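Self-study notes.
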Amino acid sequence: MPEIENHRTVLRTQQMAREIVVVDGLPNSGKAVMAPLISTLKRGELWHMNLTYDYCCILNGLGKMSLDAARTMINLNSDLDLYQHMISRYTNFRKTDVSSAQMNLLAQKYLTRLKKPDGDEVVKRIRKERPILPIMTHHLFAMSEPLFDALGNRLKLFICNTRHPLWLVDYWFQRKWDGRAGKDPREMKMCFKSRYGIFPWYLAGWEGEYSRLGPLDKAVRVIAHFFKSFDQHYKLLHQSERRKVFFVPFEWFVTQPLPFLTEITARLGTKRTALTSKMMARLDVPRKLPKNALDSQKEKMSALMKRESISKRSEEILESLCNDYERKYLAAFRWPSN
């Protein structure tokens, strides 16, 4: 086959998915609470975890994929994902999966679609029903330029879930992410190779420093890296793009979800349904946080830092992260106490 000349731009000009929501955030920050609720809103579709979106953004950020190629892949996949949803092709019906139609209270909706025609009739339904496609990505915000660029006005909302660093660091450390990337066959992070070894994509440029750290130090530095890169990327966004970004602190959202849901439905031009209330009960929101939760977590992390002999520098970084987060998001938050 003849090669496509390098000066040719690849693209997709057609559009089917015209109302898209991205749900992003670090592990344990609340994505698994947010995404199911969006799926239950009027016109909401089953939230989707297609790692192609992550990979395209990461490859572009690492200089391994051109922006036009990443943009085209994102546009193609968003339309494909919505089309497949509309005919229940590849729908997850594994009852125990968090991303399944059953777990998200949408089984009947997608079972009914199995009997509906495909082809041009689907396009007509999409134009009429204006479905909202929720896409889940994974701590991708700092690399999200191709998503904003590709989706343009079709991207209605980019939700960044966040949480107090003490919980994020603890979770990252307990899951042993640093030892799984590039080794565990079930670990699907994009990796790269350098003279220091094989590393996940988010360590590009500082993998040498990272490789010399202990396990808990690594967890602290990674979470700090994400927080810093998210802030830097937000500042670089155009004002029109910033308006699409919605930071959602876990502590506020799980205890007082209605103001956030009201904001989300207003931005999407939709409303909550009976399924939303049912899903909120299933997810235990609103919920009461354990009494003295922050003090207990501080004690736990203090003991862990002592056990792991964390460096003074990492301890200072974590303290700064916590102070910044509490000042930015939790100034008015009241932790339950005895």
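Second protein, same conventions, sequence then structure:
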Amino acid sequence: MSTNKVVGVSYSPEDGTPTVILKGAGADADSLLAQARRREDLPVVHAPTLTEHLYRTPMDTPVAKELFPVMAALLAHVLHTDRLNRESQQ
């Protein structure tokens, strides 16, 4: 049986590299996910394979270079979705 996992990643262009800032498993993951879904400014993306890779990354550590292409695609998706949401609210 697999345990739910959640990983939070922070990125700002000034830092240059996404960083793992939050991790949780099981009931902690469920609680963190529920909190994130209540906030409009925290995008939530379901990506189990990526989550497994990121979960192995120590807290406050940059994401491994091997994951940059996936993280770039994820960031592009989040930014696109955010822009569409802002446009629909105008």
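Instructor comment on the second fold: The CA atoms of residues 17 and 65 lie 9 Å apart.
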